[in-house]
Q: What sequence folds into this?
């Protein structure tokens, strides 16, 4: 039984569960079965990954080979790098299942299972073709989750789909060029110098939310449903980080891209009113840290990236869950309409603050042990400008996610809204996430930090050894936090902090949602006019030719007039002369 | 061959003379007949008998080779010789079968179109015209050709003029045809005269032998060729010498138009082949030049110009008449290639075009017979009011376009293959273009008939009024033949190959040991 289950990628178990869930009717009696699938399938996958990897002694497990169009595919490759993503994806799948227990939506459940499966399948893909297949499946399954957000989410879903299909097409083009040139479709370090490398980088970049390619995150994620946003925030972007770490680690350009990615969302996040959108910007900002880490590419940096992916999924999931709970109870996450909710949703408020502390890298909270590893790696690499940018971004994170989100939702001025505490299942999911946010950051015999560090791809020992809880690091981090809190308080006091306003913030997506649309409209208007003109000219031209032909050949035309016999006789003589000419002289 | 054994001996021996003399004599007799029914029955019988005899001769030629016949027992070259070989036997059968089939149709048609006192002379003139065409084809004597050419032409002028009781425009068109036709016949006679001057003989085979001695450099021979090509070109409606044809076809009595369109130009085409390839020598420099430049060149011009003209015509019969000019262009293109494949294709199209154009004109005659329809725009709703007639028309029309499964496709395909083999790729383009034009002018009529509403009279739709059976049977005989030979084209193709064989053999083999040799008159023409 176990041999059978480990002979293929656990992704297929999740996808099969998703297909099965689609056939379970949405009634009160049968939905627990579907919910059991939703939690059970990722749990089973988690167990299978563990047993598969540790039942053998090699550092890389290759399995699930199949032949597709004459190419050998490796659908299951578990090694030090991919197993971390595998673990956290399965774990996130379980948490999402618990968080969504109250919801009776077949489409979300089915898509979530397939989406989770596609994410896990892509992470364990040993070759580019398998990666591409799951890459596309990821996009197709997740767009239904976006569309669950109501009628407003439909156009956003279409834009989301367009971006991701574009990403898939770029990946396909890149892998075909790469495969043709190198003769191998193996998904290992590709590098930008390889043929097709740029195309694949662009494909990964779209999914990772590179600057100017990032808008689909803030566009689609906040528009999804309560549970949908939580599910979405986990897989797509983190998979892209995995693909970058696997394929193009050590590309210097990525360090700068990561720096910019970490900095620019800060401004948008500070201005933004919708707290879920704030979180979407902060997601982008955290991804910037990871991309910079991939760009450095040292052992320490990649360890930092892996650790930060784990921690980020936990605290970002936790924050989205808390805002989801608020949305579920209050019906909005607009900062201007919230406030004072700690009275009615105390547990949610506490969990949210734990998440905020984790993202702000407060000592003994998740971000402290992972993010600082990336920043240290960047420093070691001598990238001082990017180091400064990341520090600024850390402070910025504190401003918008660490303080703004809990402050405006649960404290600030009382909105007078009195609602019930979040449902128990949400609290359980948030509780688990909050527990791990703290547990994984606590050193020593009672904490879980060593488990996190032991799991990392390279041993955190020797020259790459990283000790987060050194005195100067803690002090430095606390100064940063204090300065940020002080800045927030000062700005708030003197009224310079951007007030919570219902406003539309122009981001780069304005260029394609407004300017681009206007341009397309203009082009189509001009095109149709041009088309009409060309049609008119062609009509005129062919009409003229038609008239000429008619004038010659029609019954009234020159050619058809009844010639008098005399003229006919002259014509005959002329023909005779012509024949004689040919016969005599040719 | 079993079929051949059914024919009595005298048919096979005296057939070549009988198929000409019989209609000639009977034609003279029935001019005096008091009863039109009797005239019709006699005509029907005579054409049928000619058809049977032609079939016997064709079978004889296929199984035993060419037949030579000395008229009145006078041995050639002094007497008049008739000969039947692979080249003219199929044409003889074609002319007589079409005549027979059309005669069936004539019974109602002539009553509707010709005044009562003219009906017996009408049949008489028809038989004379028929005899003339048969004579043109069967004779091996150059001057005899001129005689029969005149016999058929003069009776044709009269027959076209008889359409005047239907449409007075028949008279000027007949007159026009008379002038043009006479010029053509005169040119032809002049050409024969030049040849006689140089060779001293009128027997075609003898002429060919002497011409071989004279050689291609003789100016008089070249002049004779030019006159013969132009003279025959008028008769076969070679573009641009076709101007007599559309009006003659449009205003002649329906039945005669069908016969004329199917046979008259074909007999002239046969003569062109006979003279160019077996009296003259196609390997001669000036002949091959003329074939390529004049025959093929004018054929191409005709295919395009006449098709364009057909598109704009409002009168159905003029559409079909211009289409005939275009189809003659196809045949001339095949002949102009002067290769075995080209000649086969051209000859095949002679046979196939006769079948489909005959069917089309019979259907048009039926439209007039029932509804007085002559214009394309009046064909509205004919698919409902005359379904069987219109269906026959459609089948033949599709064949004219060249839809696969019809004879039109077979010969166009053969022509395209011949052009490809010859390296004339542009000619394939012209064939396709001309076929597209054919789609337009045929499609215009079919569209009117099937996709336009039935016209109303006094707010009532016109009732269905099918043509009589005597019209439908001949129409469908030809329409079905065009499909049958389109699906299994083996028989007509083998006939065409036999004809191409005769043409390919050239003039030499026609000289028979049976003929006493006449010493050649030394050439007097300038070299």
A:
């Amino acid at each position: 039984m176990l041999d059978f289950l480990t002979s293929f990628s656990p992704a297929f178990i999740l996808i099969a569960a998703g297909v099965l869930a689609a056939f379970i009717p949405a009634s009160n009696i049968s939905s627990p079965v579907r919910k059991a699938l939703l939690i059970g399938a990722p749990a089973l996958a988690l167990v299978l990954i563990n047993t598969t990897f540790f039942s053998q002694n090699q550092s890389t497990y290759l399995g699930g080979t199949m032949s597709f169009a004459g190419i050998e595919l490796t659908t299951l490759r578990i090694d030090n790098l991919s197993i971390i993503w595998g673990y956290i994806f399965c774990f996130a799948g379980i948490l999402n299942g618990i968080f969504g227990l109250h919801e009776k939506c077949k489409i979300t459940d089915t898509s979530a299972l397939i989406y989770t499966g596609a994410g896990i399948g892509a992470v364990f893909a040993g070759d580019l073709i398998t990666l591409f297949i799951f890459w596309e499946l990821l996009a197709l399954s997740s767009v239904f989750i976006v569309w669950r957000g109501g009628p407003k989410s439909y156009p956003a879903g279409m834009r989301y789909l367009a971006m991701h299909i574009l990403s898939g097409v770029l990946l396909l083009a890149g892998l075909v060029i790469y495969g043709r040139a190198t003769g191998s479709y193996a998904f290992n370090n590709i590098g930008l110098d390889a043929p097709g490398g740029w195309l694949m980088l662009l494909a990964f970049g779209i999914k990772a939310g590179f600057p100017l390619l990032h808008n689909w995150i803030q566009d689609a994620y906040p528009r999804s449903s309560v549970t949908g946003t939580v599910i979405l925030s986990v897989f797509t972007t983190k998979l892209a980080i995995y693909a970058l770490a696997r394929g193009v680690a050590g590309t210097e350009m990525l360090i700068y891209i990561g720096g910019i990615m970490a900095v620019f969302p800060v401004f948008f996040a500070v201005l933004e009113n919708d707290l879920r959108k704030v979180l979407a910007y902060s997601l982008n900002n955290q991804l910037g840290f990871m991309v910079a880490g991939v760009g450095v590419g040292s052992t320490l940096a990649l360890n930092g990236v892996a650790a930060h992916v784990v921690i980020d999924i936990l605290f970002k999931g936790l924050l989205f869950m808390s805002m989801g709970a608020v949305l579920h109870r209050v019906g909005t996450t607009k900062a201007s309409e919230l406030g004072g909710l700690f009275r009615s949703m105390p547990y949610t408020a506490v969990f949210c603050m734990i998440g905020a502390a984790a993202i702000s890298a407060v000592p003994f909270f998740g971000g402290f042990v992972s993010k600082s590893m990336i920043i240290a790696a960047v420093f070691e690499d001598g990238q001082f400008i990017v180091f400064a940018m990341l520090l600024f971004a850390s402070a910025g994170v504190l401003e918008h996610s660490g303080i703004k989100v809990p402050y405006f939702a649960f404290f600030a001025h009382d909105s007078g809204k009195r609602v019930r505490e979040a449902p128990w299942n949400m609290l359980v999911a948030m509780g688990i996430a909050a527990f791990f946010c703290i547990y994984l950051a606590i050193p020593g015999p009672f904490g879980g930090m060593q488990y996190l560090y032991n799991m990392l791809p390279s041993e955190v020992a020797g020259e790459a050894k990283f000790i987060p809880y050194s005195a100067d690091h803690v002090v430095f981090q606390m100064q940063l936090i204090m300065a940020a809190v002080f800045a927030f308080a000062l700005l708030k006091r003197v009224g310079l902090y951007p007030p919570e306003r219902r406003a539309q913030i122009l981001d780069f997506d304005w260029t394609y949602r407004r300017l681009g649309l206007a341009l397309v409209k203009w082009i189509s208007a001009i095109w149709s006019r041009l088309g009409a003109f060309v049609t008119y000219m062609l009509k005129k031209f062919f009409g003229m030719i038609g008239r000429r032909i008619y004038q010659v050949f029609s019954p009234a035309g020159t050619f058809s007039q009844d010639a008098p016999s005399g003229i006919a006789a002259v014509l005959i003589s002329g023909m005779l002369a012509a024949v004689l000419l040919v016969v005599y002289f040719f | 061959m079993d079929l051949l054994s059914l024919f009595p001996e005298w048919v096979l021996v005296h057939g070549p003379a009988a198929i000409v003399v019989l209609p000639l004599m009977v034609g003279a007799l029935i001019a005096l007949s008091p009863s039109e029914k009797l005239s019709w029955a006699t005509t029907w019988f005579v054409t049928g008998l000619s058809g049977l005899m032609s079939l016997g001769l064709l079978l004889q030629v296929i199984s035993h080779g060419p037949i030579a016949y000395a008229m009145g027992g006078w041995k050639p070259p002094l007497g008049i010789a008739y000969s039947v070989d692979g080249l003219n036997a199929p044409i003889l059968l074609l002319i007589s079968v079409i005549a027979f089939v059309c005669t069936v149709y004539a019974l109602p048609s002539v009553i509707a179109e010709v005044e009562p006192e003219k009906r017996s002379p009408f049949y008489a003139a028809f038989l004379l015209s028929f005899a003339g065409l048969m004579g043109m084809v069967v004779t091996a004597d150059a001057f005899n050709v001129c005689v029969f050419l005149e016999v058929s032409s003069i009776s044709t002028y009269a027959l076209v003029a008889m359409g005047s009781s239907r449409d007075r425009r028949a008279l000027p068109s007949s007159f026009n045809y008379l002038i043009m036709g006479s010029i053509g016949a005169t040119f032809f006679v002049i050409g024969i005269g030049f040849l006689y001057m140089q060779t001293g003989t009128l027997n075609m085979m003898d002429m060919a032998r002497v011409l071989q001695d004279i050689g291609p450099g003789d100016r008089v021979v070249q002049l004779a060729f030019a006159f013969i090509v132009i003279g025959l070109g008028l008769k076969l409606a070679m573009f641009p010498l076709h101007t007599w044809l559309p009006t003659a076809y449009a205003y002649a009595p329906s039945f005669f138009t069908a016969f004329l369109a199917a046979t008259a130009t074909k007999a002239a085409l046969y003569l062109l082949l006979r003279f160019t390839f077996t009296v003259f020598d196609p390997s001669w420099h000036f002949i091959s030049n003329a074939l390529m430049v004049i025959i093929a060149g004018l054929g191409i011009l005709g295919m395009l110009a006449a098709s364009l003209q057909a598109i704009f015509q409002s009168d159905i019969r003029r559409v079909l008449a211009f289409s005939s000019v275009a189809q003659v262009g196809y045949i001339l293109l095949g002949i102009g290639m002067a290769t075995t494949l080209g000649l086969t294709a051209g000859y095949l199209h002679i046979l196939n075009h006769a079948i489909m154009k005959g069917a089309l004109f019979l259907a048009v005659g039926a439209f007039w017979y029932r509804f007085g329809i002559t214009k394309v725009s009046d064909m509205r709703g004919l698919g409902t009011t005359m379904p069987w007639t219109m269906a026959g028309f459609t089948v033949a029309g599709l064949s004219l376009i060249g839809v696969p499964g019809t004879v039109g496709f077979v010969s166009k395909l053969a022509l395209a293959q011949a052009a490809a083999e010859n390296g004339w790729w542009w000619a394939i383009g012209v064939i396709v273009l001309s076929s597209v034009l054919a789609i337009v002018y045929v499609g215009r009529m079919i569209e009117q008939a099937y996709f336009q509403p039935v016209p109303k009279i006094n707010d009532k739709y016109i009732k269905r009024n099918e043509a009589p059976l005597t019209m439908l049977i001949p129409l469908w005989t030809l329409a079905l033949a065009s499909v049958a030979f389109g699906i299994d084209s083996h028989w007509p193709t083998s006939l065409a190959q036999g004809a191409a064989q005769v043409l390919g053999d050239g003039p030499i083999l026609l000289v028979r040991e049976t003929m006493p040799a006449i010493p050649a008159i030394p050439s007097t023409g300038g070299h």
Observations:
- The two ends of chain B are 51 Å apart (CA to CA).
- Residues 509-527 of chain B have pLDDT under 50 and may be disordered.
